[in-house]
């Protein structure tokens, strides 16, 4: 549901920024799904990799949209 909420700092009429923001959220959602699958499969030892990727995606998104 958060993919439908655009932060105030992003002009909703700026299609490039909105699309870029949504693309960052899609990357994060994809990595969350990978992590969830790892947990479901009992592959806990490789979970740190997904957590690091999620953090990198978050930090990159914050740099882009500050």
General description of the model:
The chain is mostly helical and 66 residues long. Helices cover 67% and strands 0% of the residues. The protein contains two helices and no strands. The longest helix has 26 residues, at 15-40. The chain is elongated. The protein starts with 14 loop residues before the first helix and ends with a helix. The mean pLDDT is 90.
- N/C terminus separation: 21 Å
Question: Overall mean pLDDT score?
Answer: 90
**Globular, elongated, flat, extended or rod-shaped: what is the shape?**
elongated
Number of helical stretches of at least 4 residues: 2
Beta-strand share of residues: under 5%
SSE topology:
Blueprint: H1 15-40, H2 47-64
List keywords for this structure.
66 residues, mainly alpha, 2 helices
Outline:
The chain has 66 residues and is mainly α. Helix content is 67%, strand content 0%.
């Amino acid at each position: 549901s958060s993919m439908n909420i655009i932060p105030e700092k992003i002009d909703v009429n700026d299609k490039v920024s909105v699309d870029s923001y949504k693309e960052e959220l899609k990357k994060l959602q994809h990595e969350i799904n990978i992590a969830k699958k790892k947990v479901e499969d009992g592959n806990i030892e490789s979970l740190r990799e997904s957590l690091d990727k999620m953090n990198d995606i978050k930090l990159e998104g914050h740099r882009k949209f500050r």
